[in-house]
Write a structure and sequence with these properties.
Length: 242
């Protein structure tokens, strides 16, 4: 049962496994399946379940599992942030739909980016690497009351700045291009005040935004793979995996 707490926390917080569209029964079955494979390879922890210290052991297992899944989840948050920036710049900020990752509403363009990055994540076997990191964590941080410290959480908080840095890197080409378009429309409005800039500016900005999305789409794959690599390096550094 003790390894199950770590595995279940990772499943609940990680992408693919922990999305809200996945039924809770499937998450529970997945957690039990992963645990049943890992337990025969783990040494039996010498912990008295009825000892009050076991509460700290369970808390440590949950925190370790959460920090493994949540760190990878931050990459998808960066992609969603980049999609929101692009959508707002091209006038699609009002087109919202429910995000299956976290259950909140986000622009359709963010959903498009999220689905594409999810496919990239599966194509590079990111979910298998996540399971490998989970298995290695039982060797470097065995089941005990000792585990994560305050500095480990601060590393995740500091790495959380990549949500904005990664999102801005994804949206920067569109931001720069659409800024030039908006400046051009501003000059046209000053030179010809009788021109109805809203009637022609909005559709032109949207069409140009779609063109920029198509042009910059191939650049999202290397950026997302780089973010996934940094996230896994951070997890390995926190857990002491070499």
């Amino acid at each position: 049962m003790l390894p199950l707490f770590r595995v279940a926390a990772m499943v609940a917080a990680s992408p693919v496994f922990g999305t809200r569209t996945v039924p809770i029964k499937v998450k529970i079955i997945t957690s039990f399946a992963i645990t049943s494979v890992l337990v025969p390879m783990l040494p039996a922890p010498e912990i008295d379940v009825f000892n009050p210290l076991s509460v700290l052991v369970i808390a440590q297992q949950v925190l370790i599992g959460l920090i493994i899944g949540f760190t990878v989840q931050l990459v998808f948050s960066a992609v969603i942030t980049g999609g929101q920036i692009v959508a707002m710049q091209m006038g699609l900020g009002f087109s919202l739909m429910v995000d299956p990752q976290n259950g909140a509403q986000s622009p359709v363009l963010s959903q498009f980016y999220t689905i594409m990055v999810m496919l990239i994540y599966l194509a590079i076997n990111g979910h298998l690497v996540l399971l490998e990191v989970l298995a290695e964590s039982f060797k470097t941080m065995p089941i005990s009351a000792q585990g994560l410290v305050a500095d480990d959480f601060m590393q995740v908080v500091r790495w959380g700045t990549n949500i904005f840095a990664g999102g801005l890197a994804i949206a920067l080409p569109a931001i720069a291009s659409l800024l030039v378009v908006n400046i051009a429309f501003g000059v046209m409005t000053r030179s010809a005040p009788q021109l109805n800039i809203f009637a022609i500016g909005f559709p032109i900005t949207m069409l140009l935004g779609f063109a920029l999305v198509m042009i910059t789409l191939p650049n999202i794959a290397p950026k997302s793979i780089s973010l996934f690599s940094e996230a896994y390096h951070l997890i390995q550094n926190i857990l002491g995996i070499k």
